[in-house]
């Protein structure tokens, strides 16, 4: 490990960040002087004085040129990787509330000391995602160890193409998943979350159809909606809608720009034996639909908005930064006094303070009082180091109007 060509010198700013525990080395004037190296090579990071800092995984073509694996000298070999995977699995068994749940995250990248790598469990299958090309040379070992430790029926990889947000907004249904080991899963695989049934896909599309990081928030929603009228904007495949309907909401109105996702949402209602005729499904641009509902004098007791970070329809373009306030302002007139506005964002670059400013701008624009009664994030199976603020990406604000 300590041969000359595996050492990389970093600048004083990176030294400070590593000493503070941050796991990323971002490209700068120092990294541009590094000798050539391949993605997936393990290197020793040192200060200009030659002080050892950490062992890192190299990804020289990206903005994040290296990711810290350990503050000690290590080899990325079978024993080291097995230890990290065992620790991650053990954390879920000890800390996560997985009652009635067979879909959850097993490895959360930086939060489990495996930066750039995630592993999700979907019933008897596993889904691996690589957020850095540095893991590509090690994927075979990752797969072998997951087979040994968990004995899944199959292991898939979901690839991460460029411009993910834009592709996601168009409902891209290409096959981004491929089977790495074991036997193929059904096209729609049945999983459980909080005692409810969902149908996910491991091959088609950029995502599986169920965002696992909202599991605990959906469980929280279920205790708030009995006897209420619920509007779910950017409903995607209807997971929040199903949770609300199953918990006794009198009517759930689900709005999404994609007809395909809306049909998927209806399948989720049917899979949970929830009568479709009691509920409402609208395909269209969310802002336009909100305006139409307001003109019709509609009112709701709970409005949920969980937009993607980036969304495009024929009529409008939505981005979390700046778009949230307009959405809040448009939705508040539909909300009854003392009704709940639940606003969520997974945009990593918008921190909690900035997100609350978006909510404030929207409330002022609508001339409404809005009080936050709960501010939540991701569940226990999505841990993040306290030294890595980017790891706390999910914002879920439960607010009362008036």
- Looking across the biggest beta sheet, what order are the strands in? 15-14-13-16-19-21-20
Under CATH at level 1, the class of the largest domain stands as Alpha Beta
The share of residues in helices is 25-40%
Number of strands: 21
The class by helix and strand makeup works out as alpha/beta
Count of separate DSSP helical elements: 10
Beta strand %: 25-35%
CATH-level-2 architecture of the largest domain:
3-Layer(aba) Sandwich
Which residues form runs of ≥5 with pLDDT under 50? Answer: 1-5, 311-318
**Biggest sheet descriptor:** 7 strands, mixed
Question: Between the first and last Cα atoms, what is the distance in angstroms?
Answer: 62 Å
Concise synopsis of the structure shown:
This protein has 402 residues and is α/β, with parallel strands linked by helices. It folds into three domains: 4-70, Roll (Archaeosine Trna-guanine Transglycosylase, Chain: A, domain 4); 78-186, RNA methyltransferase domain (HRMD) like (Transcription Regulator spoIIAA), CATH 3.30.750; 211-401, Vaccinia Virus protein VP39 (Rossmann fold, 3-Layer(aba) Sandwich), CATH 3.40.50.150. It has ten helices and 21 strands.
Describe the protein.
- The structure is a single chain.
- With 402 residues, the protein is an alpha/beta fold.
- The chain folds into three domains: 4-70, Archaeosine Trna-guanine Transglycosylase, Chain: A, domain 4 (Roll); 78-186, RNA methyltransferase domain (HRMD) like (Transcription Regulator spoIIAA, 2-Layer Sandwich), CATH 3.30.750; 211-401, Vaccinia Virus protein VP39 (Rossmann fold), CATH 3.40.50.150.
- It has helices at residues 12-19, 78-95, 139-150, 164-169, 215-222, 239-246, 259-271, 286-295, 320-331, 352-366, and strands spanning 7-9, 24-26, 42-46, 52-58, 64-70, 103-108, 117-122, 125-130, 154-158, 177-182, 189-193, 196-200, 229-233, 251-256, 280-283, 300-305, 310-312, 317-319, 335-345, 370-376, 395-401.
- The strands form five sheets. It has a seven-stranded mixed beta sheet, with helices on both faces.
- The longest helix is centred in the first third of the chain and has 18 residues, at 78-95.
- The chain is globular.
- Mean pLDDT is 92; it is low at 1-5 and 311-318.
